[in-house]
Design goal:
This protein has one helix at 8-15; strands at 63-70, 74-80, 83-90, 94-99, 102-103, 109-110, 123-128, 134-140, 146-152, 161-166, 178-180, 186-190, 212-216, 244-247, 254-257, 264-268, 274-280, 288-289, 295-296, 299-300, 314-317, 325-330, 343-347, 352-357, 360-367, 371-376, 382-386, 390-396. It is mainly β and 397 residues long. It has a single domain (8-28, 63-396), classed as TolB, C-terminal domain (Neuraminidase), CATH 2.120.10.30. It is globular, with a radius of gyration of 19 Å. It binds calcium ion. Residues 268, 276, 290-292, 295, 312 line the site of calcium ion.
Length: 397
């Protein structure tokens, strides 16, 4: 499926360019022989089905970008129930409310005094509780450690409530995505802690939170800041963290749920060679091992494939200037007829908008400067966020 030439020099060049997203940060593996594994498309996935539209209108000719807003270094976007505004996280520590795509002068949240701002650090994610009352943010503090805090939208003067603190051994691979699933629970992305080749083997260690996606009920339980759902895959198992939903991840910077099918899409940033997109088909059942650092994509890195490991549904190499996958959304809006169910993503360095469907990705011939993230509004329309400061809506060409 992919070319297998190591792109170490290219990777280093981009790594020095102030990357946000945890691209290559270590030596290549020389003449490693790639695993013979292939990564077949999920034959039973609901994403393989393209729903027909209810109208007879023809598909649109293509996608173009419309710049709708200008902010500072946007890293994430969210919408809130019964609120027409868009909420944007700025890497520098502000959550902005955009009304009619115009940022309000006062930020909703300001954690700018409590941040480190290395390339993969800062304010990295935000998500609203399904009822819109609470806003959750993910940021790295002055020591580079991860905080996930809760803000009560109905009591804005109340200090942030600390939900989760995770010590980060290195500056890179902090994850950052927050999203509520179709089950109403909060999912949290955490990278492997950083450096290269996951030196502490965090991603395969079910006793630690790094290198995972977590699933929690964020409301407190007595003195406990959150609850662990009893049906989490490792809940109640000795030596394993009950918060863990998925593991074997390097830096799952962005993940999302298909709002129609509930498929879970995970874009896991690769190291020196392969960028990967993983899929937990609906109903997502969790507990899956996405194989990092034993494998990078479908290439052998530190060991054999683990029993029950799940290879990516799509991977691409660093050839041609790619460096770091930015995951997006399966399209469920109305404007882009013919794109229903297509998973939009981009590469942070390559900058091309891509669409994945039925295991195949196509170049949509749209260039985005430094695409750090994507967003989805209440209607399912999708936005691309450029770290250079623009928010673009994906519109019909
Ligand atoms: Ca993997």
């Amino acid at each position: 499926m992919t070319q297998r030439r190591a792109a170490v020099a290219v990777a280093f060049a981009f790594a020095s360019a102030g990357l946000l997203l945890g691209a290559a940060c270590t030596r290549g593996r020389g003449s490693d022989t790639a695993s013979s594994t292939t990564s077949p498309p999920p034959s039973t996935s609901t994403t393989a089905t393209v729903p027909t539209t209810t109208t007879a209108a023809p598909p649109v000719r293509g996608v173009k970008l419309t710049e709708v807003a200008a902010v500072t270094q946007p890293t994430a976007m969210a919408v809130r129930a019964d609120d027409p505004a868009l909420y944007v996280a700025e890497k520098t520590g502000f959550v902005r409310r955009l009304v009619g795509f115009k940022p309000e002068p006062r930020p909703v949240i300001d954690v700018s005094a409590n941040l480190t701002l290395g390339s993969e650090q800062g304010l990295l994610g935000l998500a609203f509780s399904p009822d819109g009352r609470f806003l959750y943010i993910d940021y790295t503090d002055r020591n580079g450690d991860t905080h996930i805090d809760e803000h009560d939208m109905t009591a804005p003067a109340t200090p942030l409530r600390r939900l989760l603190f995770v010590d980060q051994p290195y500056a890179n691979h902090n994850g950052g995505q927050l999203a509520f699933g179709p089950d109403g629970l909060l999912y949290i992305a955490l990278g492997d802690g950083g450096s290269g080749n996951d030196p502490h083997n965090n991603a395969q260690n079910l006793g630690v939170l790094l290198g995972k996606i977590l699933r929690i009920d964020p409301r407190p339980d007595g003195n406990l800041p959150y609850r662990i759902p009893a049906d989490n895959p490792f809940a109640g198992q000795a030596g394993k963290r009950g918060e863990i939903w998925a593991y074997g991840l390097r830096n799952p910077w962005r993940f999302s749920f298909d709002r129609t099918t509930n498929d879970m899409w995970i874009a896991d940033v690769g190291q020196g060679a392969e960028e990967e997109i993983d899929l937990d088909p609906a109903p997502p059942d969790g507990g899956h091992n996405y194989e990092w650092p034993l494998q990078e994509g479908t290439q052998r890195l530190k060991g054999d494939r683990p029993a029950g490991g799940v290879p990516p549904v799509y991977e691409y190499s660093h050839d041609g200037g790619n460096c770091s996958v930015t995951g997006g959304y399966a399209y469920r809006g109305k404007a882009l007829r013919g794109f229903e169910g297509m998973y939009f993503f981009a590469d942070y360095c390559g900058g091309k908008l891509m669409g994945l469907r039925n295991g195949k990705a196509e170049d949509l011939h749209v260039d985005i400067a430094s695409p750090a993230s994507f967003g989805q509004d209440a209607d399912g329309e999708v936005y691309a966020l450029s770290l250079k400061g623009s928010i673009y809506r994906l519109d019909p060409k």
